[in-house]
């Protein structure tokens, strides 16, 4: 394990974990919420540079002459180096960050000059620097009870540093055993000691300055990120340069407060100063690049980590088993998450499954596998995998977060609520826990959504219209504990025809329930000042992770042609739909429907659609959509467009470009190109075309808008009609 540098010495440490997530914002796709995401236990850095006087870290032989220590060391009595010269070198070695060498030099001086004050002071200070502060205190009391104030302050600072070291080890120990309620006790006590020292140490003293640096480390470990940033910026205003070990916690704080560019710059400084910096700094730099949307830089950083992190730490001899490198496991799991961030979900799952086969009882690996399965839409598989992790480590934070996110996806709302509440109470500063909790709380609020369009047509007489438009508004109540809510809907359609304009408005009031991936709804609708009420009933259910069916009926269907509405006709809709979803990249839908219009016409149709994602990266996704449809109408005399038979075979290419993103805010450009072969009874076949372009803005975590324009061309009764249209929509939580 790479030791951790802290306050002038190295110490052991253990990485912690928290989740980070990247969320896609394409309005047509279920957003990917994966792991993403991933916390760091602080690894303070800043290794001392190699010593020019003793480059190999070794002292001359004990009987070596004074010249072996350097040209500035005089010869002393009995062939020994001058005690004062050698003691001065020892102190400079300590100040340069080499307390081990300083201790050895001081002890050599004391073998032939036992009362040398500089050697005694350096030995005591070096022991304190190395963490043996009790032994150092014993020496101080025995030989130098009245130290100068600055030396005494330095000794107190060393004691505080040792307390921080012990506090971090205690924190790590409690977290490994999932005793989260106790993990900060020792570090909080160390912070109190640092605060007391700050009050006592003289302004401008070396001890006070170092205490401020060490305090940054403790504040970061206690997740007081705002305090870290405030203190760091105060130090910058005072033109104080931070040592590298204190830069890493500041970088963590900037990253936690969604300032990734500043975090990346600090991580880069640490890595440039110390190529052997702990893994947490290297992965922190990776995350800062990812969250700065610098995916190419993150790719290069991950490649470096992958190439330079061996599977095994070392082997005592050829017959002994090699010692595994825990850092390799972290890198392997990071490679899973990196693939998911880039929308390579299949690659992420393959990597996670490979890790699981190699370490089937490692809860970190099991949770990584569950997250990869959930990213592919396999929620029941993810739940079964998480239950395995729960059996091994029921109190583990990552396992419990997976349980909450699985419950959310499976619509097991009581379990989601209970798990989310417990996590939020125990880990209020964890970003993934906080986001999951906010998503639960969103259900306790009203929500609003709307969509509208406007079009202009010309060139054909069959449809006989020049302008058209529609909009739908829906207000939803908060969800109840049992998964119920009520909703109110307003819809409006209008069109201009040669014979005049037609307007149709309708209001609906309904109730729905959603639970365990089942959904039913019932709504009563009607026109203003009209007793022509209609009923909308529906049922939908997922069968496992791959199949869904839906049944629906409407007694006053909005699918009824507008010109039929003008003639006081109404239509009853009967529809069933079956969806097969293999994964996030491929799904197919079959829809059967019948519209029974009150003039005796029965409009029956069948449609099939296959969606295949053909390209995906962090900022681009491309889908190919193939569709087939057929419609048959009874031969009735109608004022609306009513061919006896229609058939269509089409293909559409959709591309989404995530142009800009800043955490919960983003802009996505949407482009769609479609072509179809269309056939109409009595007129034969003709091509159809459609192109559209739009923007989707994610304004906040809960609010988004979309808008766009489009052009289409189709043949009706042998005549070509062309249409321009625009659309606008929004949705959000109130």
TrEMBL record:
- What's the superkingdom here? Bacteria
**Gene3D superfamilies documented for this protein:** Tetratricopeptide repeat domain (1.25.40.10)
Domain PgaA membrane beta barrel, chain residue ranges per copy: 459-725
One GO MF annotation is:
poly-beta-1,6-N-acetyl-D-glucosamine transmembrane transporter activity
Question: Record's SUPFAM superfamilies?
Answer: TPR-like (SSF48452)
InterPro entries xrefs: PGA_export_porin_PgaA, PgaA_barrel, TPR-like_helical_dom_sf
Annotated protein name in UniProt: Poly-beta-1,6 N-acetyl-D-glucosamine export porin PgaA
